[in-house]
Amino acid sequence: PYSEYVGVGLMVGGWDRAIPTMMKGERALFTMHPSVAYGEQGAGFRIPPNATVRFDIELLGFDELDDLGSGLEGEVDPAYDPDPVGREDLGLGGTGPKGIRWERHGLEAIVKAPLPDNVTSKDIHAEFYQKRVLVSVQGEVLLRGTPGIDLDREECFWEIRSEEEFDGDPLARPCLWVHLMKMNAEKVRWPRWLFK
Question: Rounded CA gap, 107 and 89, in Å?
Answer without folding.
Answer: 7
